[in-house]
Structures are given as C-alpha cells and as structure tokens.
Automatic annotation (TrEMBL):
Protein name: Cytochrome P450
Annotated keywords: Heme, Iron, Membrane, Metal-binding, Monooxygenase, Oxidoreductase, Transmembrane, Transmembrane helix
Record flagged with keyword Transmembrane: yes
PROSITE patterns, A to Z: CYTOCHROME_P450
Species, as recorded: Talaromyces atroroseus
Organism phylogeny: Eukaryota, Fungi, Dikarya, Ascomycota, Pezizomycotina
Regions crossing the membrane: 15-34
Gene Ontology molecular functions: heme binding; iron ion binding; monooxygenase activity; oxidoreductase activity, acting on paired donors, with incorporation or reduction of molecular oxygen
Length: 516
C-alpha cells in the first residue's frame, strides 16, 4: 500500500492515475449508453411534457427541486389508485410498488427481491466497510438478540450515562436559560447514549471517538453516493481519495482495535471460557473486520435516533401544552419506586402517551419518504402480471400512507396522543399502536423480517432521552429566534441543523429519586 501511495504521489503516478480514471469514465459512459435499461412495463411519473432524454432530465430536475411534492404526486396519482409507477432519480429509476402489493413484497424471499442487496448498494458496503459484510451480516443478530432482549439488564446503565451526558452537554445551572443548537446538541447526546451500548466505557466518553462516531454516517452516505455508479475497480481507486472517510477510519482503528484485541484475548483466557464465553470461529476473529462490523452498526444506530429525537424536541417546543400530560404519565409510571428499579422495559412500555408522541412526531417528520427498498436479483412477476426485471430497485411510498386522510383521520394535523387514545387496554391488540411496531400503517422502521432490528433499543433510547428532558429541564423556543424548517433532499428529510432552543434545569423536586 505504501509503495502504491509513493508511486501515486510522483508525477508519473499522477498521470497514470488520470489515464486510468479517464478510461474508466469512458468505459462507464459506453456501458451506460449501450445498455438498454430493462424496466417494468409501467408508466413513469412525469413532471415534464417533453419526450425522450430531455423530458427525463426535466423529470429528474423536478424531483431534485421538490422531491416531497414529486413523491406525493406519485402517491396520489398512482399508489393511492392501486397502480405501480416508475420514479426517476439522479442515480436510478425506482419501481414504486402500489401499497396493495405490500404483503406480496414483504413475503418475497431475498433470492427474488433482496433487502440485503439493496442495502449493500445504498451503503456501498463492500467499499465503505469490508467485502465480508456484503455476504454475512451476523452483527445484525447482536442487535436483534442481545441488544433487544437485554434491555432490562442495561437500562439502568443507559440511564446513568444519559444523566452524565446531559450534565456534560447541557449543564445543571437552574438559574438561567441557555440557548443551544438543537441538532448539534441532540446528536452529541444520542451518540454518547448509543455508544454506551455499542462500545461501553471509557470509549463512550472519549471526545475524539465520539466525534468520529457522529461524523462517520454522513461520510459513509456521501462516499456511497459518489462512487455507486462506477465499476468496482474505479470505486476502489476513488476510495483512495475519500480523505474524510480515511481520517475517520484512522481514529476508529486507534480507539477500537486495542479494545477488540483485548476482548478477543479474554476469549482465549481459560478462566473467561469457564464463565461460559463461547470460543469464536477463527474466521470471525479478524479485529479489522470486527471493527468494520461495529462501524456498520454505528452508522445505523446513531443518525436515525438523532433525527427522530431532534424532531421530537422541535415538537415539544411547538406544543408546550402537552408537557404536563407527559410529565404526569412519567410521574405515575416511574414515580412509584423512585430508584434504579423503576427503569424497566415494562415501565417504558407503560408510557403510552410518550410513545404516541414519538410515533406522531416521526409520522409527520420521518427520516425517509420511501421504505422497503429491495433489489430484484432475478426477474420477478407480481400476482397482477407485472414483470420486475432483474436489477430493478423497488420501494413503496410510506410517507404517502402516513399522510393519507383515508387511512389516518386528520392526517396532516399533529395530534400527540392519537395513538394512546386508540389503545383499549388489551395488550395484544394495543401493540399495533406502539412506535416500535412495524405494520403497514407504521412503516417508520420498514416492514417484515427486514424491519429495523434496532427498533426496540431505539425506542428505549428515545424514551429515556425525552424523560430526561421532561423531568430535569424546561425547554422552549426563545423569542426572536427563527423556527426550525426541516428540508427534503431526494427521498430523505433532514432536520434543521441551524436553529436553537432554550434549556433551563428545573428546580422542581417533583421527580426526585427517578434519576438519582
Ligand atoms: C428511530 C430510530 C431508527 C429508525 C427510524 C430506523 C429505521 C430503519 C429502517 C427504515 C431500516 C430499513 C429496514 C428495511 O430495509 O426494510 C433500518 C435498518 C436497520 N437498522 Fe434501524 N432505525 C432506527 C434505529 C436503529 C438503531 C438504534 C439500531 C441499532 C442499534 C438500528 C440498526 C439497524 C440495522 C442494523 C439495520 C439493517 C441495515 C441494513 O440492512 O443494511 N436502527 N432501520
């Protein structure tokens, strides 16, 4: 690697690199124009009246300048009428399946419509992480298994870390209001909390590590967008120029490799084996690949909850009249035993108004408008006869359903406790109204066997965060400051990263004991 680097830094090396890149671009262009794209035989969603390539470019421009408007137009003109359509985006054409085919797509095996293959493209897993992760995602099972089933065991630790994180980032001065940038504060707090579970102490308090952990997700997505339409060998060359990503990897290696190596050594220790630690297959014991798996989890585990909680904070400030109702519920559920024993998953589940508030906030301000992204890895025929050719990207418009007045009454109105009111007291029936429940009415976490494996952990994290806010602080928009405006970029919605809100530590003793 060092010799390649020194060759590339010479003038000859630079020229050789340019020749390779130009050849690769030419090759890609030839392949692009020569290839007759195979697409399902359904209509394109059109914004332009022009035919051909010019019309296609205008359709893409329309999508770029108003992606939400375009997506909702597609939902209203096609999806809602039970029709599939094709959506042009800068990097690909999506087959947007009609919602009445949700079940069919959900049940389709990965050998036909593959979720992992779609995710490998979205994240460019092979290049952003490691080729081994493309074929085997066993690290997701840690999230599905221990991280989900063990919530009761680690909840008190998560709560303790949350208090430490808030004291560190917000402070405990009850005498005055502090103005803090919402996105930057929430993402720092969530990164600290999630890392308590991902890497533990002391790394979850290391500033350099936390910064990398927070920044790596945008870097991964940015890299994936830049490289995705090039052939593999060009991608490998391009990765060499992704300096931000390389810098982050350096920091990750510095902090994570010693920890991983230390833990692997523990597994070899006969005493720790006696304690029930199963030996791990040698092929799974490469510290570099284990680190890449951890980073892959990191990318999934931090940004989505940070976006979700940021929007919840905005909705808390927009709706001060709901604070007391949320606080009363917290007092009723957690106030019985005012010590660490009040922190159980069962108690978090009993906070149905808080749960409803988070779901409602996410329904109106989701991370993405489309869900259930799949890649056809062979030609697939749907039950209505539609052929989805191999290589087609498939998705559904979840946000259309979430805003559909025929599915959700007053769908465009924020109603914090709408899902709490729907509950009848029957635990089984009520489960469908929970934030973490992935259903066709709630696709925030996807749907089916590939629905987000971290959704129970995410729910616990969001709830602990918001309980901490409601119990220990007063929050509000400060007078004269601009209100946050989230923005849609293609299929994604980004919270406003520039606006602030006011924080003050409460003097009330009403919740004493709960966080002590
Ligand atoms: C509110 C927070 C979160 C939201 C809204 C969210 C949403 C999603 C969605 C929509 C998917 C794709 C599902 C599909 O393809 O059908 C997903 C996948 C995933 N999520 Fe989450 N998630 C959240 C938090 C978390 C957390 C905290 C973790 C880890 C602890 C996590 C781990 C994962 C993993 C490992 C995947 C699979 C990614 C892949 O297939 O490449 N998520 N999540």
């Amino acid at each position: 690697m060092a010799s390649i680097q020194s060759f590339l830094s010479t003038e000859g090396g630079f020229i050789a690199l340019r020749v390779i890149l130009l050849a690769a671009v030419a090759l890609t262009a030839i392949r692009y124009f020569a290839k007759k794209e195979r697409l399902p035989d359904v209509e394109f969603l059109r914004a332009s009246n022009k035919p051909g390539r010019a019309g296609g470019s205008e359709d893409i421009q329309a999508f770029l300048s108003d992606s939400l408007g375009t997506i909702m137009k597609g939902y209203n003109e096609y999806s809602k009428l039970g029709k599939h359509f094709l959506l042009r985006t800068p990097r690909q054409v999506y087959f947007i399946a009609a919602p009445n085919f949700l079940e069919e797509i959900r049940k389709m095996p990965d050998s036909k419509l593959s979720q992992p293959a779609a995710a490998n493209i979205i994240f460019q897993v092979k290049h952003n992480f490691h080729p081994d992760l493309e074929a085997d995602n066993y690290h997701f099972n840690v999230v599905r298994g221990k991280m989900t089933q063990g919530i009761n065991q680690y909840l008190p630790d998560l709560v303790a870390e949350t208090v430490h994180a808030f004291d560190f980032e917000v402070g405990s001065d009850a005498s005055q209001w502090r103005e803090l940038r919402t996105w930057s504060l929430v993402s720092k707090l969530v990164t600290r909390m999630a890392n308590k579970m991902l890497v533990g102490a002391p790394l979850c308090r290391n500033e350099e590590y936390l910064q990398m952990s927070c920044d790596i997700t945008p870097a991964v997505f940015d890299t994936a967008v830049k490289i995705r339409n090039y052939p593999d060998f060009v991608k490998s060359i391009m990765m060499y120029f992704m300096k931000t990503k390389e810098q982050q990897l350096k920091i990750a290696r510095k902090h994570l490799l010693p920890v991983i190596e230390g833990r692997l050594a523990l597994l070899d220790n006969p005493v720790s084996r006696e304690k029930g630690n199963k030996p791990v297959d040698t092929w799974k014991r490469n510290p570099e690949i284990l680190m890449q798996r951890l980073l892959h989890l990191n990318v999934n585990a931090i940004h989505a909850p940070a976006y979700t909680v940021t929007e919840c904070m905005v909705d808390l400030c927009k709706n001060p009249e709901i604070h007391e109702e949320l606080r009363a519920e917290i007092e009723q559920v957690l106030g019985k035993n005012r010590d660490a024993s009040c922190w159980t998953k069962e108690n978090l589940d009993r906070l149905v108004k808080l749960d409803s508030f988070i779901r409602e906030s996410s329904r109106l301000t989701p991370i993405s408008a489309v869900k259930m992204e799949r890649l056809a890895v062979q030609d697939v025929r749907l039950s209505d006869g539609t052929l989805i050719p191999r290589g087609t990207s498939v998705a559904v418009i979840a946000h259309g359903r979430h805003l559909d007045e025929d599915i959700i009454p007053n769908a465009r109105t924020f109603d914090a406790f709408r899902y709490a009111r729907l509950r009848t007291g029957d635990e089984m029936a009520d489960a469908e109204y929970a934030f973490a429940q992935a259903t066709s009415e709630n696709m925030l976490f996807g749907l089916g066997r590939h629905a987000c494996p971290g959704r129970q952990f995410a729910t616990a994290l969001c709830k602990v965060f918001l309980i901490c806010v409601l119990v220990r602080y007063d929050v509000k928009f400060l007078e004269g400051r601009p209100l946050p405006q989230g923005r849609w970029t293609q299929k994604f919605r980004n919270p406003d990263t520039t606006t602030t809100m006011g924080w003050q530590r409460t003097r009330s003793t009403r919740f004493d004991g709960i966080f002590d």
